[in-house]
Design brief:
Elements: E1 10-13, E2 16-18, H1 36-40, H2 46-55, E3 57-62, H3 66-80, E4 94-96, E5 108-111, H4 118-125, H5 127-136, E6 145-155, E7 163-166, E8 175-176, E9 180-186, E10 197-199, H6 232-236, E11 241-242, E12 249-253, E13 259-261, E14 270-279, E15 283-284, E16 310-312
Antiparallel strand pairs: 1-2, 3-12, 4-5, 5-6, 6-14, 6-16, 7-13, 8-15, 9-12, 9-14, 10-11, 10-13
């Protein structure tokens, strides 16, 4: 939209920019694409695309360097260190210093960090994740990609909590139809010991009459609660596979793929950031704002505007 073409952001208050008002790359994570070829080089090979639609996810895709991760982790301090709280903290859609409520199982979870820092802003528009997403939203054709929202998940050393098994679209039915995608970016190496992300292959085919599985734990802390609503066949096929993500690698998963992560009992933190997308044309399915602090998009109206920028159109990768 023309009103968001400027590289100069509006301000929440003097000296506190709101980067959601800038719908372009700032160059924090590399030179912005200048040609169709610059965009096209980020497409996944067909083997990876086929793997995604067969298993419900594809993993270990390099999207950031270790140096870029280290820079992002400095910004992460705004959200995990109370003494360094960002002056724009009120712009976050959600922030839970410990979503589990259990001091022995701590999970910091936040949404909306893209509005606060240049680095988190540029992650949303990063071609290394936005371009492949256009291949994974729809098995039939490439789709223009629109940003939904971002997230942070941090598990501190020794007492980091779990993220219970779930399907993402179970939390997103306020938008329709289902044509969404989650990109999980590891900012630390993820292992079996530190609570790395796991997937259930094939679970993207699990639904209830076309609807996602019901949410069994809104605070993510009861790891196995989903099993109380699974069929015998689903339980028989419940075979977790670790993502094995290295620092700077991403996984892309289907909105119905069951995934979760165990606790971190190592001597080092496990931190990640998530970017969620949907296909351009998705509609609101609620009479309330989709995210806290955002404008109302009426039911059955297209989700677009300041908080939901278009991040990639396949036409941008086609030579004129």
């Amino acid at each position: 939209m023309p009103e968001f073409d400027s590289a100069t952001p509006a301000e929440l208050s003097p000296g506190v920019p709101d980067w959601s008002t800038v719908h372009r790359l700032l160059g924090e994570l590399g030179e912005p694409p200048q040609s169709a070829g610059d965009w096209a080089k980020h497409f996944l090979g067909q083997e990876k695309v086929a793997e995604f639609f067969e298993r419900g996810y594809v993993s270990n895709i390099r999207v950031l360097t270790e140096e870029q991760c280290d820079r992002i982790l400095k910004d992460y301090e705004y959200f995990i260190n109370p003494s360094k709280r960002h002056p724009g903290h009120a712009m976050l859609y959600e922030h839970h210093s410990n979503q589990s409520g259990d001091s022995n199982n701590v999970l910091m979870h936040g949404l909306g960090q893209w509005r606060l820092t240049r680095l988190f802003h540029d992650l949303v528009f990063l071609p290394a994740i936005s371009v492949p997403s256009s291949q994974l939203l729809d098995q039939e054709k490439l789709r223009p990609v629109r940003f939904w929202h971002d997230q942070m998940f941090a598990k501190p050393a020794r007492h980091g909590g779990v993220v219970a098994w779930h399907q993402d679209y179970s939390y997103w039915t306020r938008t329709k139809p289902m044509m969404h995608l989650t990109v999980h970016i590891a900012l630390d190496d993820q292992t079996l010991e530190n609570g790395g992300l796991h997937f259930i292959p094939g679970s993207h085919r699990w639904h209830r009459g076309g609807k996602p599985l019901p949410v069994t734990d809104f605070n993510f802390k009861d790891m196995e609660s989903i099993k109380t609503i699974l069929t015998e066949e689903e339980i028989a096929n419940f075979k977790p596979v670790p993502s094995g993500l290295k620092k700077g690698e991403a996984s892309f998963h289907h909105p119905l793929t069951v995934h979760g992560s165990y606790s971190n009992r190592t001597d080092h933190p496990r931190r990640a950031t998530v970017v969620n997308y949907f296909a351009d044309g998705i509609l609101s399915n609620t009479d309330e704002p989709l995210l806290d602090g955002t404008n109302l998009i009426k039911r059955d109206c297209k989700v677009e505007g300041q908080f939901y920028p278009l991040v990639f159109d396949p036409d941008w990768a086609r030579k004129k």
